Structures are given as C-alpha cells and as structure tokens.
C-alpha cells in the first residue's frame, strides 16, 4: 500500500516542458491521448493504400476530437517492409494538412534522419510548424530498412553516428545565426535559416533505440516513441524511461506508442492478437487503453490498416465509446 501511495505521489509531481501547441495538447501529465495513423483506411492485402478520401478523413478525425494524426517517412516501397505508408512525401503532405485543418496535431513517426540532409529537415519541419501555427510533432529515427541506404549511396552501418550529427544540426537551426562544426556542414554564424519554429525549437521525439545509448535518448529527446508490448512489460519500460529522464534532471518527458486495432461491432469481443495490436470490442479496447494510461503511457497512435469494419463507422464508434475517457 505504501509503495502504491509513493507511486501516486510521483505521478502527481510529473510535469512536461511547454514547447508548441501540438506538444502541449497531445502530451499531458498522467493522461493518455489518442491519435490516428495516416492513411486512415483499411489495406490489409496490399502494401500500397488507395488514399481514398484521405483529406476528408483527417478532417473528420479533427472534428471527432482525436488529438493527432501521424504520417510516416517511407522513401521507397520496399517489398520486405510491406507498407508504403501514406505514399506522399511527409513534408509536402504536412504542408497540405496544415492548410486543411485547424486544431489537430500533425505528427511524423518518424523522419529517417540519415537519409536526408538535416538542413532540409530543419527547414521543412520549421515551415510545417509555422504554417500549422505550432501543431508539428517531429518523430525521428535512424531507419530499419537496409535496402534504402544503397539506393542513396549511404552506408547503413554508419546510421547511428549520422543520426546523432543530424539531430545536433537540427537543434542548432533553432538558434539565431548558429555557428558550429558538424559532419553535415559547418555554418559559421554569418548565415541563418528561416523560418524558426514557433517555440524556438522543434519537438523531437526519438523512435526506439535509433542506434543510440538509452541515456543519450533520455537527455536529448523531447519524448520517446516505443513499440507495443504487453502491459507488465510496458510498465517496466516506462519506469526505466522515467528513471533515466529523472537522473539527468529537469522536467519529465512523455512516452508514446502505436497500436493496430480491428474494432468489432460487438463491444464485448475479447482481444485477439493481430500484427502489433488486437482485434477486439470497444469495451476491451477502453480497458486496455486505461491500463496503458495507468502505467504512464501518454499517447497511443491507432492504426486502422487491418480494420475490417467501415472506416467512418469505426471512427464514429471510437469517438462515441473511447475518446470521452481520454480527453480533457
């Protein structure tokens, strides 16, 4: 009992830094928010989605009260990977969504830093952040598809060090006329990059290990994107994350994960495993998400790729039966 009270006290003490509109609305201490992975459609039999009604569904997600939509960075349709994401370049698509929405947070999970020059990433991301009035969340990763690296004449084995240098370069671009030396270039303070992010820096969320030491991730990221696991394991992972962040001092940092779901018409269908998620009814989904919230998860990005029911019907069900427990 004493241990539970001590845990409750620690949870009540958690506060996140304030960064931009998107970060502040999606990540709330001791609360779970819900987002959707784009494309918001079913495409289990093909790696390539139709993108049918893609803008209409993002707008519907915003109207229904989802906290965020998440794009992915998939430069090439790699057969072994089996998923081409939303097919559109994430930064071009972010610009479109910034102009087509008003309040929903626009996230990327995640930009593969070693495959792009960080100056381009920094400028494109800051532009999307400004155009959306501070609604951008930028997930970053080192990449897990070896086939993409030779296509760009880049060494797969060096992606860890390239990730760190790219990350550092992007951080510097939030400064005024930065001066630093870096493997990607050496701005000397005589030039500047515009626009600047709305909060003076981009919210950078590191995905998985990204070939980095866990302490480096805790020190440098504004949050961490991890993978779905069973609740007891996820609880241990979250405790370890919080301990690492606490050890470096400063504010707490959020943690998030994706979750594939196939939402059934019957709300009482028990969970049945699918790829990185479950086929289940609304009552069991609510209970599962509550369990994640109880162990400290801050955001879940729901992926409907394997959903068998009509997408609009599923979104309405999620809005009516699930979202009210994870808003406000």
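^ Assign residues to that structure.
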């Amino acid at each position: 009992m004493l241990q539970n009270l001590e845990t409750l006290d620690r949870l009540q003490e958690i506060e996140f830094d304030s960064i931009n509109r998107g970060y502040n609305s999606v990540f709330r201490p001791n609360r779970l928010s819900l987002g959707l992975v784009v494309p918001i459609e079913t495409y289990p039999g093909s790696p390539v989605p139709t993108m049918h009604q893609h803008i209409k569904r993002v707008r519907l997600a915003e109207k229904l009260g989802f906290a965020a939509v998440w794009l992915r960075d998939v430069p090439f349709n790699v057969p072994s990977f089996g998923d081409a994401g939303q097919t559109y370049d994430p930064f071009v698509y972010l610009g479109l969504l910034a102009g087509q929405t008003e309040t929903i947070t626009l996230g990327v999970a995640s930009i593969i830093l070693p495959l792009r020059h960080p100056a381009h990433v920094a400028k494109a991301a800051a532009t999307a952040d400004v155009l959306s009035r501070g609604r951008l969340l930028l997930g970053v990763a080192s990449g897990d598809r070896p086939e993409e690296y030779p296509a760009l004449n880049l060494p797969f084995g060096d992606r860890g060090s390239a990730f760190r240098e790219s990350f550092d370069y992007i951080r510097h671009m939030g400064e005024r006329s930065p001066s630093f030396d870096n493997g990607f270039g050496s701005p000397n303070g005589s030039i500047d990059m515009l626009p600047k992010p709305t909060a003076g820096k981009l919210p950078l969320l590191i995905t998985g290990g990204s070939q980095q030491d866990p302490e480096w991730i805790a020190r440098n990221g504004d949050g961490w994107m991890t993978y779905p696991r069973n609740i007891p394991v996820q609880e241990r992972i979250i405790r370890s994350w919080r301990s690492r962040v606490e050890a470096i001092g400063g504010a707490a940092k959020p943690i998030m994960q994706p979750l594939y779901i196939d939402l059934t018409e019957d709300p009482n269908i028990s969970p049945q495993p699918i790829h990185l998620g479950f086929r289940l009814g609304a009552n069991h989904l609510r209970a599962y998400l509550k369990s994640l919230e109880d162990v400290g998860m801050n955001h879940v990005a729901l992926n409907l790729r394997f959903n068998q029911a009509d997408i609009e019907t599923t979104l309405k069900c999620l809005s009516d039966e699930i979202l009210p427990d994870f808003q406000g």
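Residues 260 and 275 are 7 Å apart (CA to CA).
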